[in-house]
Design goal:
Blueprint lengths: L1 H9 L10 E6 L10 E4 L14 H17 L3 E2 L7 E26 L2 E29 L5 E10 L6 H15 L8
Length: 184
């Protein structure tokens, strides 16, 4: 079960053929240009899903977000006032999609079409999969109002090692945070 827990956010991105879907929303009236410091919201849990809400995943996501924000010039403040507050939420949903394959065959007789197509058939398959979601929130530290939200969703794929899980989370966070701060 611990292995499945680590899967959640590890594969929000895949290597060369990433299926990560990212969306962002923000308050266009908020001045992001003066941001210098951030502080973590003290959250009891980051998910109702036990596969996400464990110290292995929490530490990996926190580290990835810290690295991204610090690379953008923001400094984490452990105490005192900061410019913005940061929090994240994650989850895994079990999904089913249907895929249909149509088999229609044409007929040729000595190079000439022969009266259209032979009877064909269609076959539909149900495919079960898991989709991971990671939401990163940035709140104004004074008003506690949401000023930026980034969401990433991707298929959850099995990973082989803790290093691969960490790399998947890092790639997901980088993809989600690529448009933060807006207007850069």
């Amino acid at each position: 079960m611990l292995f499945r827990v680590s899967i959640l956010l590890s594969c929000l991105t895949m290597t060369a053929c990433s299926t990560l879907t990212v969306s962002t929303d923000y308050n266009p009236e908020y001045d992001f240009s003066g941001l210098k410091t951030y502080q973590w919201v003290k959250a009891e849990k980051h998910s109702d899903d036990v596969r996400v809400n464990n110290s292995l995943i929490i530490n990996r996501v926190n580290n990835a977000i810290n690295q991204d924000l610090q690379a953008k010039g923001l400094t984490e403040k452990k105490t005192g006032d900061a410019d913005v507050l940061v929090n994240w939420f994650g989850g895994i949903d079990n999904k089913i999609r249907q895929e249909s394959i149509n088999y229609y065959y044409g007929s040729m007789w000595h190079g000439y079409p022969y009266g259209g197509y032979w009877p064909g058939y269609s076959q539909t398959y149900n495919v079960e999969y898991q989709e991971g979601t990671l939401i990163i929130d940035i709140l104004d530290a004074k008003s506690h109002e949401l000023v930026w939200r980034g969401t990433g969703q991707d298929y959850v794929e099995e990973q082989q090692s803790p290093e691969e899980i960490t790399e998947g989370i890092n790639q997901a966070v980088t993809g989600i945070m690529s448009d933060f701060p807006p207007g850069k």
